[in-house]
């Protein structure tokens, strides 16, 4: 009997923990969406901020985040995928590649603010790109590289060796095998990893703090050499640095809703690609 | 008339829609070694595992019929599964020592079943002696069990079962992963253990079945084809199928 | 010929990537050395005050950083491992299909949004609960970091528990142990190296997180006496001060120096995590 009671306790412990974790998510989403949705309107999404940020919309921040993510993609995806292809398809297993893999895994764990410092030292100062959306995009690109390499390599590893041998045995070159067989087959897996990485990059704040983000710019940034606004930084400034913090709280909630929705949308796209890919197998 | 220890009556077992055991009835005599033989997939292991209710773990397994130890209904809700598994021990195909020391591998279940702490070292020593392992490991009881050789590991698994003083020991091809010398040691052990325990063993090895069994059951496609003394099965099988299987024509 | 060219292209991209990533390390070290050529390293590690222009000591920042991170682990480790155990050993498949996306969603929420909730929701709650003026303190940061570390800990712990061979569970059950005894005495101990790896990676995440602690912990650069004090972590210090510091001054180099220390800490924690993860893999074989 005592044993039975103890086991009911064990069960409650496990279930309770799980429910608590779910509750965290519930509270986060409930608070942000219940208070943020009323602030959302077409005007909010499509207008410039006015009256010292106490009125108006967040259009420049949305545009800035999209542009930033676009630059990140242009930089990180080709290099990341090429690096993974080299590691998995060309490089022989050696101590050297093992060291490379270990450093890539470790770089994925480097705090994001350190990437910010590096971006400042390399892109802004050494390469004289200035504080700009280009510098910030490249910085986020660096941050994304390890994740893209890791997920791409995993996707490549899932392709059975028999498939490589089959085409190679037909006299097809290795490059053609990679181009015509390996990459198309691995595409859904690579795409999933890329999208998830970009959704993380879009929500990052620390790496762009010193590399180009601004609280307010005039108009929408169109040149990649200019400073820019971004959703996560906008949320940070509205909630901590604004002179009328209480007054702009609804705008902060609205910004949070837009940011989270954007990130979730990217995650859902990745989820759909992944589940389609699984059923194909 | 020999005393019956374990019995199955009209046993049907399904995994999902697939029927694995078909209306199977069998009586296992007390303190004897009974071998279950038959080609792969005939349901030998499934039958074995239904006695200590290991199928409870697979959600899509469904069992009909009566399984009894002495007069106890093994699937009656009033009987605790853990008590049944304590009384019906099991040794698996691949030696599966727990990731603990040799000593802890034996003490684990003793603690679980609340044996008095003071008695535990003595019980463990006895069980290891009983399993012909004591002399080989008495100096290094704290060593991780995985460091033992395959044969030693399997004897440890038998000791781990024996230490609980079960009434029945189920063995699922206990020698299939072992070399001939280790196999011989386990067979000697089985012959010694049958004094105190009822043993049911699944085996693919005909010579082994002949060497150790008192009775042999031949199964095919989920049905019991023939069940007789070891001597009769091997020298004078009544069924054509049995004759063919023993003669090595299929399986 | 084309084949050879493209091989070189891929190889070049690979090496460029690695060169870029490798230069992060050298940039940090170079600037940190510039700092230590101006400031005595002993003062840097043993001083008690971080006050740009007069005294650069990492000590209060380190204490703050570890206080918040370890506090978050106290919350996240038991919660994460128990949830992982529930997911892999108890929950039926249909429930898993619901719970896994929940954990992925939690992982996807940007840190700035979590920090925002620290200000508007958790901060007021803490100040009311303890009757204090300011709810932006170490406790606030710890709770938020715990929430952020949970997905990492749960996912890796679940892998670790799943990779415990089924034969261990069967052995235990066949001896008459019940499901719970098997889980707590066999499965979880057997998964221990993987669980430690999970904790290490979660801790690394908590130590390196910037926005959440910047927003929710109050940023007082003094040595904290407890969880209800405001603290200022290494990451928050960099975030606050780097924007305003002139290029290549002592202060500028000082921020790189504390970043280098943070880098080394998270590197060692990652290596420890990898070491334990590898031990789990060996144990499988």
Automatic annotation (TrEMBL), chain A:
Q: Name one GO molecular function term.
A: phosphate transmembrane transporter activity
SUPFAM superfamilies, from UniProt?
Answer: MetI-like
Q: Where in the cell is it found?
A: Cell membrane
- Give the bilayer topology: Multi-pass membrane protein
Q: A single GO CC term, please? A: plasma membrane
| Domain ABC transmembrane type-1: from-to ranges | 62-270
Give the keywords, sorted: Cell membrane, Membrane, Transmembrane, Transmembrane helix, Transport
Which PROSITE patterns does UniProt cross-reference here? ABC_TM1
* Residue spans crossing the bilayer: 12-33, 58-87, 107-127, 133-150, 208-231, 251-273
NCBIfam families from the UniProt entry: 3a0107s02c
Which protein family is it in?
Answer: Belongs to the binding-protein-dependent transport system permease family. CysTW subfamily.
Name this polypeptide is given: Phosphate transport system permease protein PstA
- This protein's species is Algoriphagus antarcticus
Q: What is the lineage of its organism?
A: Bacteria, Pseudomonadati, Bacteroidota, Cytophagia, Cytophagales
TrEMBL record, chain B:
One GO cellular component this record assigns the protein to is: membrane
Domain ABC transporter, first and last residues per copy: 6-246
**Signal sequence, start to end:** none
Q: Which UniProt keywords apply?
A: ATP-binding, Nucleotide-binding, Phosphate transport, Transport
InterPro entries linked: AAA+_ATPase, ABC_transporter-like_ATP-bd, ABC_transporter-like_CS, P-loop_NTPase, PstB-like
Annotated SMART domains: AAA
Molecular function per GO: ATP binding; ATP hydrolysis activity; phosphate transmembrane transporter activity
UniProt feature coiled coil, ranges = none
Q: Name one Pfam family in it.
A: ABC_tran
Q: Which GO terms describe its biological process?
A: phosphate ion transmembrane transport
Q: What is this protein called?
A: Phosphate ABC transporter ATP-binding protein (PhoT family)
Q: Which organism is it from?
A: Algoriphagus antarcticus
Q: What is the lineage of its organism?
A: Bacteria, Pseudomonadati, Bacteroidota, Cytophagia, Cytophagales
From TrEMBL, chain C:
Alphabetically list the UniProt keywords.
Cell membrane, Membrane, Phosphate transport, Transmembrane, Transmembrane helix, Transport
Q: Which InterPro entries match?
A: MetI-like, MetI-like_sf, Phosphate_PstC, Phosphate_Transport_Permease
Which spans of this chain does the record mark as coiled coil? none
Membrane topology of this protein: Multi-pass membrane protein
Name the NCBIfam families for this protein.
Answer: phosphate_pstC
A molecular function (GO) term: phosphate transmembrane transporter activity
Q: What is this protein called?
A: Phosphate transport system permease protein
Give yes or no: UniProt keyword Cell membrane. yes
Q: Which family does it belong to?
A: Belongs to the binding-protein-dependent transport system permease family. CysTW subfamily.
Q: What is its main location?
A: membrane
Q: Which residue intervals define the domain ABC transmembrane type-1 in the entry? A: 62-273
Entry keyword Amino-acid biosynthesis: no
The Gene Ontology biological process annotation of the record reads: phosphate ion transport
Show the GO cellular component annotation of the record. Answer: plasma membrane
Q: What does this protein do?
A: Part of the binding-protein-dependent transport system for phosphate; probably responsible for the translocation of the substrate across the membrane.
Localization per Swiss-Prot or TrEMBL? Cell membrane
Transmembrane spans: 12-36, 56-86, 106-126, 138-161, 182-203, 252-272
């Amino acid at each position: 009997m005592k044993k039975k009671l103890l086991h009911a306790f064990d069960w409650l412990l496990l279930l309770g923990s799980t429910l608590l974790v779910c509750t965290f998510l519930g509270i986060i989403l409930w608070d942000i969406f219940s208070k943020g949705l009323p602030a959302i309107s077409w005007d909010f999404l499509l207008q410039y901020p006015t009256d010292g940020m106490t009125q108006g919309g967040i259009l420049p921040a949305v545009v800035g985040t999209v542009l930033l993510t676009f630059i990140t993609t242009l930089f990180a995806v080709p290099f990341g995928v090429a690096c993974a292809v080299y590691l998995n398809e060309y490089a022989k297993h050696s101590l050297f590649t093992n060291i490379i893999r270990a450093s890539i895994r470790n770089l994925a764990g480097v705090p994001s603010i350190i990437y910010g410092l590096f971006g400042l030292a390399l892109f802004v100062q050494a390469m004289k790109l200035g504080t700009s959306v280009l510098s910030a995009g490249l910085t986020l690109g660096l941050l994304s590289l390890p994740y893209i390499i890791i997920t791409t390599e995993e996707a490549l590893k899932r392709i059975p060796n028999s498939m490589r041998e089959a085409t190679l045995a037909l006299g097809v070159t290795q490059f053609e095998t990679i181009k015509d067989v390996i990459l198309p087959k691995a595409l859904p897996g690579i795409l999933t990893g890329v999208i998830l990485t970009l959704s993380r990059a879009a929500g990052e704040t620390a790496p762009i703090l010193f590399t180009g983000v601004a609280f307010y710019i005039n108009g929408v940034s169109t040149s990649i050499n200019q400073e820019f606004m971004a959703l996560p930084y906008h949320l940070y400034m509205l909630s901590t640095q604004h002179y009328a913090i209480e007054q702009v709280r609804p705008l902060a909630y609205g910004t949070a809703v837009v940011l989270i929705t954007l990130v979730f949308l990217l995650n859902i796209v990745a989820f759909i690609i992944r589940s389609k890919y699984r059923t194909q197998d | 008339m020999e005393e019956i220890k374990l019995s199955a009556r009209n046993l049907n077992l399904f995994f999902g829609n697939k029927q694995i055991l078909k209306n199977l009835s069998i009586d296992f005599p007390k303190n004897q070694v009974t071998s279950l033989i038959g080609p792969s997939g005939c349901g030998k292991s499934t039958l074995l595992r239904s006695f200590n209710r290991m199928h409870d773990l697979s959600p899509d397994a469904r069992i009909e019929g009566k399984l009894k130890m002495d007069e106890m209904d093994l699937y009656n809700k009033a009987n605790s599964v853990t008590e049944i598994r304590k009384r019906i021990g099991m040794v698996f195909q691949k030696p599966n020592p727990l990731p603990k020391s040799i000593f802890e591998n034996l003490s684990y279940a003793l603690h679980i079943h609340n044996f008095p702490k003071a008695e535990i070292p003595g019980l463990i020593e006895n069980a290891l002696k009983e399993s012909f392992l004591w002399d080989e490991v008495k100096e290094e009881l704290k060593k991780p069990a995985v460091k033992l050789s395959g044969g030693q590991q399997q004897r440890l698994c038998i000791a781990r079962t024996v230490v609980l003083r079960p009434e029945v020991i189920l063995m699922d091809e206990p020698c299939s992963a072992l070399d001939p010398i280790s196999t011989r040691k386990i067979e000697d052990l089985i012959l010694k253990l049958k004094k105190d325990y009822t043993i049911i063993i699944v085996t693919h090895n005909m010579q082994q079945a002949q060497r150790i069994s008192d009775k042999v059951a031949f199964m095919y496609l989920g049905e019991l084809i023939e069940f007789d003394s070891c001597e009769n099965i091997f020298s004078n099988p009544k069924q054509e199928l049995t004759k063919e299987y023993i003669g090595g024509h299929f399986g | 010929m084309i084949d050879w060219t493209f091989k070189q292209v891929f190889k070049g991209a690979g090496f460029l990537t690695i060169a870029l990533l490798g230069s992060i390390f050298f940039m940090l070290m170079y600037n940190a050395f510039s700092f230590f050529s101006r400031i005595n390293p002993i003062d840097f590690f043993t001083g008690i005050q971080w006050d740009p222009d007069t005294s650069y000591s990492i000590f209060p920042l380190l204490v703050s950083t570890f206080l918040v991170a370890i506090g978050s682990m106290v919350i996240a480790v038991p919660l994460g491992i128990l949830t992982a155990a529930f997911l892999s050993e108890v929950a039926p498949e249909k429930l898993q299909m619901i719970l896994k996306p929940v954990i992925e969603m939690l992982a996807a929420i940007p840190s700035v949004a979590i920090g925002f909730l620290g200000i508007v929701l958790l901060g007021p709650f803490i100040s009311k609960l303890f009757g204090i003026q300011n709810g932006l303190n170490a406790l606030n940061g710890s709770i938020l970091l715990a929430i952020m570390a949970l997905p990492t800990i749960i996912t890796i712990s679940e892998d670790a528990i799943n990779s415990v061979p089924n034969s261990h569970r069967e052995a235990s059950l066949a001896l008459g142990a019940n499901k719970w005894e098997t889980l707590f005495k066999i499965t979880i101990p057997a998964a221990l190296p993987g669980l430690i790896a999970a904790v290490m990676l979660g801790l690394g995440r908590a130590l390196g997180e910037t926005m959440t602690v910047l927003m929710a912990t109050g940023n007082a650069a003094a040595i904290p006496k407890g969880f209800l004090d405001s603290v200022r972590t290494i990451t928050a210090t960099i975030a606050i001060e780097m924007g305003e510091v002139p290029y290549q001054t002592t202060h500028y180099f000082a921020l790189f120096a504390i970043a280098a220390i943070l880098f080394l800490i998270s590197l060692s924690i990652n290596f420890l995590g990898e070491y334990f993860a590898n031990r789990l893999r060996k144990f499988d074989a």
